[in-house]
Amino acid sequence: MTSQGDSVPPYAVSEQLVVKGEELYKRRCGGCHSLDNNRIGPRHRDVYGRKAGTVADYKYSKALRNLDVIWTDQTLDEWLVNPTAFAKGTSMGFRLKKADERHAIIEYLKFLSSASSANAQ
Ligand code: HEC
């Protein structure tokens, strides 16, 4: 294993929040994103724990390509509050104002990450 892999702990997730997050994800993000296909926005499976702007076959804005950030609870939360403030020049023009909705959706994305303890062997 690489040292990078070693530094990623299995993420603990709350099942209840994941269920709520899945519903909210479809409603709030599904217009532009899906888990396994690039649409208006890049596909999302495994986005949690990954470096921003790295889905190889998606055409990101320069802002996202140059963003040196790993998607975690904190960075995803800040991003969803206001993408433009987080990465000036991004093409994601959508804000999620409600903290509880952000929290549930982030938990869902975490659950879908291969580093999630729910998916780990
Ligand atoms: C109106 C369309 C739209 C909606 C709605 C939207 N997004 Fe996006 N999203 C985009 C676009 C476009 C990008 C690419 C941004 C860029 O390249 O600057 C993006 C990028 C992202 C990224 C960066 C992914 C990466 O590979 O680095 C994350 C994370 C993200 N969106 C999460 C969400 C979540 C979570 C929601 C729902 C709460 C959401 N988005 C709703 C259009 C949208």
TrEMBL record:
<keyword id="KW-0249">Electron transport</keyword>
<dbReference type="InterPro" id="IPR036909">
    <property type="entry name" value="Cyt_c-like_dom_sf"/>
</dbReference>
<keyword id="KW-0479">Metal-binding</keyword>
<dbReference type="Pfam" id="PF00034">
    <property type="entry name" value="Cytochrom_C"/>
</dbReference>
<keyword id="KW-0813">Transport</keyword>
<dbReference type="InterPro" id="IPR002327">
    <property type="entry name" value="Cyt_c_1A/1B"/>
</dbReference>
<protein>
    <submittedName>
        <fullName>C-type cytochrome</fullName>
    </submittedName>
</protein>
<dbReference type="InterPro" id="IPR009056">
    <property type="entry name" value="Cyt_c-like_dom"/>
</dbReference>
<keyword id="KW-0349">Heme</keyword>
<keyword id="KW-0408">Iron</keyword>
<feature type="domain" description="Cytochrome c">
    <location>
        <begin position="16"/>
        <end position="113"/>
    </location>
</feature>
